[in-house]
Amino acid sequence: MEKEAEVKELIKKYLSHNRTKEGLSYLKDYSNLISSNINAEDDKIILRSSLINIGFDLRGFQKEMVGVKISYEDIYHGCLELEKEV
């Protein structure tokens, strides 16, 4: 349960307040593609660009993910939980 809260806080920290739903959607889809090892490079590029275009600091987010040992699968599930709250 502790890790779930940590994941949600990390996601919230990086999402733009005025584009939360859009950012969650992009991040959820992007993390799902990464964690499931689906070979969809074009989709990954589009989603990564979409995140960056809405002001999401993907590089900083990934550095923090590695620092606290959070996987993209954890991020995907965190996005699903946050979508219920938003």
Question: Could you describe the 3D structure shown?
Answer:
The protein has 86 residues and is an all-alpha fold. 77% of the residues lie in helices and 0% in strands. The chain contains 5 helices and no strands. The longest helix has 16 residues. The radius of gyration is 12 Å and the shape is globular.
End-to-end distance:
20 Å
Basic shape: globular
**Over the alpha carbons, how many angstroms does the gyration radius reach?**
12 Å
Find the structural class using helix and strand composition: mainly alpha
Give the overall average pLDDT.
93
What does the largest sheet look like? none
Low-confidence stretches: none
- Beta fraction: under 5%
Strands, count? 0
Count the helices. How many?
A: 5
Estimate percent helicity. over 70%
Following the backbone from N to C, one meets helices and strands in this order, namely HHHHH
